[in-house]
Design brief:
This protein is mainly α and about 100 residues long. About 80% of the residues lie in helices and about 0% in strands. The protein has one domain.
């Protein structure tokens, strides 16, 4: 039974796809966490204006997407999150 194994003969396409997906999800998640913490730090801890901080962080998100070669889905996600943040910021400004 153990003598049937030949190193380098196994098909590892599924393992490679799983590893690639895990790395991509980790890069996306890590980048989103860093951008979120940066935005919250700029607004609440440093007292910077919300709009300037949001657009600055969105720009950094675009740069990170180019640096990590994330593709079009990253830019769409970043745009949607920016619009949601603008709406949430506008609603918060109404009640403050």
């Amino acid at each position: 039974m153990a003598g049937d194994y030949v190193p380098g003969e196994m098909n590892i396409d599924d393992q490679q796809a799983t590893y690639t997906g895990f790395i991509a999800a980790s890069v996306w998640g890590g980048t989103l966490v860093v951008l979120t913490v940066l935005l919250l730090t700029l607004v609440f801890a440093a007292g910077q204006p919300f709009m300037g901080s949001l657009f600055g962080v969105a720009f950094l998100g675009i740069v990170a997407g180019m640096m990590f070669r994330m593709g079009a889905a990253w830019y769409v996600t970043l745009g949607i999150l920016t619009v949601i943040s603008l709406i949430a910021g506008g609603i918060a400004a109404l009640f403050s």
